[in-house]
Amino acid sequence: MVEDIMMEAEERMEKAIASLHEAFGSVRTGRANAMVLDKIKVDYYGVPTPINQMAGVKTPDAHMLVIEPWDKGMLRAIEHAIIGSDLGVTPSNDGSVIRLPFPMLTEERRRELAKQCKTYAEEARVAVRAARRDANAAIERSGKDDNLPEDDQRRAETGVQKLTDRYIEKVDEAYKKKEAEVMEI
Prior knowledge:
Gyrase A, domain 2; Topoisomerase I, Chain A, domain 4; 2 domains
């Protein structure tokens, strides 16, 4: 019973970390990264479709993304979707591919992005703590319902706290790494 509670808590904490990495992937740094396009959907014959499912995305250098749609008729739609997004990059369409030049970030924009990353990290910490709270509540319930001895209950709560500390540390490490990447000139 306690093992199931621990496994479920760990799964939820792992999902929080995965969600954090996904959120960090969408934050634009000074370098071109194809993950910034993941959240942009294009109306592809009536179906909202991610750009990477309808075009090849290449990174020829550190500050450029090249989008080459498999259906050349979708160039305009992709261009409009990028302009309509909050990416902050102006696409240039040459009739066969779309180029996305990523200019160097200003100091002010870097600070804004670092603040955004901090918010994502705090959301992940909250999710990890929520998993801890739910696990502790489940342990307490099993103490009442399943007559789990108090010693085992305390041991399980200590285990949940150690697990929480480990995942909070992972969140902090990921945040520090992303912050350094964003602030890098």
